[in-house]
Records
---
Amino acid sequence: MSEIEYRVAEGAYADAMVELEHLCFPNLGGDDLLTVEGILLQEAVFPEGAFIALDGDRVIGMGSGIFVDYEISQPQHHMADVVGHEGVGNHDPDGDWYYGIDIAVHPDYRGRGIASKLYQLRKQVVIDHNKRGIIAGGVIPGFVNHKHEMTAAEYVEEVAAGRLVDATLTAQIRNGFEVRGVIADYVQDPTSDNWASFIVWFNPWYRDDETDDDNRHPEEE
């Protein structure tokens, strides 16, 4: 088994990253997928916010995101409205949260801990910059098998409770994320009727001189 290398994403890999994104998210609308322009802008604006996993010179995993200000008590939003032009237009170096845009792993490489490593790299960026944590909307691919018998909110609740398994959400929970609700019309995904989960990872090392009750981790109360 070859050793996987992880590094900050570079524009030279932009075409391969776009190809991987389309492979991993075949049901998403084109407006919700990364573009070469967006990847190049990320490299210029916030390079340390995006990572790739390489098997030799082959891109087999990636993750990207930006810093934003966001009120986590209000999960409803559309991804494009938060991230802005080409996924990086609303990057704010002073933003309290890292907004996770995507995590993608080639199907042939899943089950090898690559996504978990990409999440760890994100967490380290958050820790290094003393941000509150990571927020994201997560696709729920397993909902297609249950949407005729329960709502998206019920499905996400069942997954969070461990009574159902979702390929994406279950892995996110195992990586320390908390489910904070569901998002309607998050992205264009007809298989899930455009629903997504709203997940949060709280940085346990975050330092704040002032108490913010709305954004404070429950364990701190």
---
Amino acid sequence: MTEWYNGYYLEGVGNIYNPKSVVEALSEGSCKDYWSKTGGFTELEEYITMDFKGLKDTITNLLTGEQVPLNVLGFSNDLESFQDKDEVLTALIHLGYLTYKEGNVKISNRELREEFSSTIKRLNWGTVSRHYHRVEI
């Protein structure tokens, strides 16, 4: 359960689990991707296809398990107007797709890595998808 649903981080609290997915896993008796039942993947697709320099490379790095430095200070709490990739990634933190800790961003857990993976397959990001699937999730 830790691999699948842990990984969100709140300052002063520490790591927390995705409560909806934990309840689903306990009810169903298995760990798997319950996030997609929320329909949220269309939101993810919209954000990661924005045309900002370095965004696709950053998503690729995140998919391989890397933590990526991120400046969250420019974010204006507007989920529709973005100036750069850092603002897009900060929005993904607010939407629950990424977690932020000590100046770095990462994909929170296996459930969300699978969401990102499914999304890039749908988008046909060929080289990204091939590179990612050589890496253990």
---
Amino acid sequence: MNNYDQQDASRLIPLLNSIMQEISDRIQAIALTEANLREMDKDEKAGRPGQALAAALMNHRRELRQCRKEINRLGCVFDEDQPYRILIPGNDGQLSGGYAWQTGEASIETRTPDTSNR
């Protein structure tokens, strides 16, 4: 279980920023590669150009999965409501009393535990 105090969570920002940039780059590359594959005719897809694009697509998807795994290895998760926000566990290892970081931000925000009865 990973846990972070505010200073340690703040130290994650450069790494999280780098990972999120990699994710953004991979998503763009996947979209472009898929578009290029769609534009190819059947013979091109079966030939070397199509095979090269298919291999590149698989590589981009694998690297995207690796980025997401790296976020998880840190004990962090993507916020379901805000996909460009990462939740960081607090001192107790829980997300509810931890921190949140928004892509592009220079600092983290402290989250307060949700004590409402749902």
